[in-house]
Amino acid sequence: MKNFCRLATLALALCVIATNAVAQAPATVLSNLVEGVGPMAGGTTSWAGLSELDLIPGSSLLGVKSTSAFLYIGFYGGNTVDIGNMVLYKTARNGTTVLSGKKVTLGGVSNPSINLTSTSVCPVQPVSIANPCIIKLDAVKGALSSLNDYYFTIFFTNDGNNASVLGIGNMSAQGSLSGYTVVGDETRIKTKGALPQGYVGGAPYFLMYVANQ
Amino acid sequence: MKTVCKFAVLTLTMLAVTVCGFAQDAKVTAALNLERGVTGPVTTNLNWAGYSALNLIPGAGLIPITSKTTAFYLGFTAGSTADIGNMVLYTTPRNSSTISAVTPVTYGGVSNPSINLASKTVCAVQPLSAGSPCIVRLDPLTLSLSALSDYYLVVYFTANDNNNSAVSATVGGNVISSLTGWYIGSDQTRLTVGQSIPAGSNGNRPNFLMYVMTN
Question: Do B30 and A4 touch (CB under 8 A)?
Fold first, then answer.
């Protein structure tokens, strides 16, 4: 009985150690959930009053397990970016009807102003095409499903700051991401509403990566 | 000591049960992509009577996920019934056109199914359209796709068939996919090992084939 007890205790200790090791494994490696964008080509200026919709296709998810998604957006010009709102729409695969929408935030708010001239935000100054500023947005809770498509939609307030903002994009090697631009605020579409037309599979201007951390 | 021992055994048992539970969860995970499938809104291609749709699934585009099964998903944007004459999967060495294996592909257990696109149990959202395509999952094959091979899914639509005249295929809306395809106006599903894949593959967007998944 004493030996059995010792064996049981040893097995328990080993089990706890092994379980902890396995549980920690997924969090240690940064992994792409879909293929991100390639070399940057430089985008267009003057985003005041415009929305960009970026498609994250479920059919391109790479099978990385993650309970949340992190979106990264890139800039190569401008001083302050005034974002009016950000949202992540879910649709059926290859569908255009919104099934649901989730707020996307930076620093806890969905309408942040980003100071691109601050070294705490963009460490390498000045921001340029050679030294783009990549902003990691707050985690979007919930796993992305290969049975759905997702549209990250960002609206830029119609103001003077946004007139000089430059999105990183229109890359020739765009990976699995694509996007399109629409005049007006497209971040307020309700469930069962239709996404705006205009998608032609072009490269995104702002969304660069979708990762597990 | 006896109490500690009892507690340890109980905890160990509970842990074993929990770990087994996690292990079983992992096995029943959702279907995963084996290739980058068709993305974004699709376009359409009408009238398939007498045509074969040939779709290339390149080994070079495989996402490194281990799976013993492979499931193909076909997309339809119009039609009431699709009368399929035959479906096969050809295997070739990578970037070769010589067929090294032929595998029957089935839907509902048969390789010449009639798919009732007007049924809500088949196509939940009616009517079919480019904005709401109907995605049909073929029977999963017990087949591990290899990065050393290419695969061609060929679907032949029965000729002189009014149903198929009204059938419309999803066509990939853009080129951000690993899947490509073309079509030929005859039955191309009867080729045998050693014969060549018919000419015409030029990297165009696939007709019908939307996704290649683990299940």
Answer: no
Closest residue to A93, CB basis, from B32, B36, B135:
B135
Asked if B1 reaches chain A (Cβ–Cβ under 8 Å), the answer is yes
Determine the Cα–Cα distance for residues A12 and A16; give it in Å rounded to an integer: 6
Both A8 and A62 in a single domain?
no
List, in sequence order, every residue forming a beta bridge with B154; answer none if it has no partner: B54, B88
A116 and A35 in a common domain: yes
A14 with A113, same domain? no
Each residue's pLDDT tens digit in chain B (215 positions)?
A: 555 555 555 555 554 444 444 444 344 458 999 999 999 889 999 999 999 999 999 999 999 998 999 999 999 999 999 999 999 999 999 999 999 999 999 999 999 999 999 999 999 999 999 988 999 999 999 999 999 999 999 999 999 999 999 999 999 876 678 999 999 999 999 999 999 999 999 888 999 999 999 99
Residues of A in contact with B23 (CB under 8 A): none
Which residue in B has a C-alpha nearest to residue A59's C-alpha?
Answer: B37
Q: Is the ipTM of this complex over 0.90?
A: no
Task: Count the domains in chain A.
Answer: 2
**Residues in B touching A59 (Cβ below 8 Å):** 33, 36-39, 177, 210-211
**Residue position matching structure tokens 């009016």:** A84
Which of 133-162 (A) contact B at CB < 8 A?
145-147, 149
Q: Is A67 on the interface with B (CB under 8 A)?
A: no
